[in-house]
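Quick note —
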Amino acid sequence: MSIRGIGGRGLAIGILGILLLTGCGASAPARPPGGLGGEVITVYKTPTCGCCDAYIRYLRDHGVAVHVVEQDDLAPLKRQSGIPEAMWSCHTARIGPYVVEGHVPVEAIARLWAERPSALGIALPGMPPGSPGMGGARTGPLTIYLIAPDGAAHPWMQW
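Predicted structure written out below.
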């Protein structure tokens, strides 16, 4: 049968079917940012921290797979991971061999994962307003630090 023989409703249903089969009828699911490729980030947090929960939502909203571990005291984990106290924040995460300390944006995590530097990890110290999971507005760029194998922290990127 030619297209001419299909009525308006039949043509519309046919087009809708093609769009659904090709994926154009629905929005695509969120993808992990730049090269994380489904790698799971484990976030260690205290049971009562609300901004940690907001950060986890932020990661998941950006397509990152997150495993959450609640602990009453994160100081031993931070020390064992080699994070200098000046870099500490309210939560600590791990992706592969790297530590991610604080409210680090997904762009920085994706860069870390893509470049795979010789480092312990990255940190956004404290709980700066406007950082992922924190309320308020940023008053300027935030500095993410690279933590070297010897524990020294160096400015690594601005966000």
